Amino acid sequence: MNKGYLSIILHAHLPYVRHPEYDHFFEENWLFEAITECYIPLIELLDRLAKDQVIYRLTLSLSPTLISMLADELLQSRYQQHLNKQIELAEKEIIRTHDQPKIQKLARLYRRFFIHTKKTYTKYQFNLLSAFKKHHALGQLELITTAATHAFLPLLSLNHSTVKNQIEIGIKTFKSNLGFSPSGFWLPECGYFPGLELSLANAGIKYFFTDSHGILDTYKPPKSGVYAPVDCGNGVMAFARDFDTSQLVWDAETGYPGNHNYREYYSDIGFNLDQDYIAPYILDGTKRINTGIKYHSITGTNVDKEIYNPKQALKTAKQDAQDFINKCQQHINQLSISMDSPPIIVAPYDAELFGHWWCEGPAWLESVLRLASKKDNNFKTISCSDYLKQQTEHHVTLPVASSWGDEGDSSYWINDKNSWIYPFLHSAAEEMEQLAIDFKKVSVSDLQTRALNQAARSLLLAQASDWPFIMKSSTTTDYAKKTITDHLARFNYLHECIRKNSIDEHYLLALETMDNIFPDINYSCYAE
Amino acid sequence: MSLSYISGNNIIQPLFSAQEMLDISNQISRNFSPVAPTSLTSNNSEVELSKHFLQEVSQNISSYYAPKLSPTTKSLTLLAINPQHLSVHWNLGANNSHLLLPAMLNDELILRIYAQAEIKKDHVKLNPIMELPVHSIQQQKEITIPPSKDQTLYSAYIGQRTSENTFNSLIQSNKLHISSGKSLPSPSNEYIDTTNHAILFEQMKIPHPTQKHYAGTNHSGLGIKRDKK
Question: What value of ipTM does the predicted structure carry?
Answer without folding.
Answer: 0.92
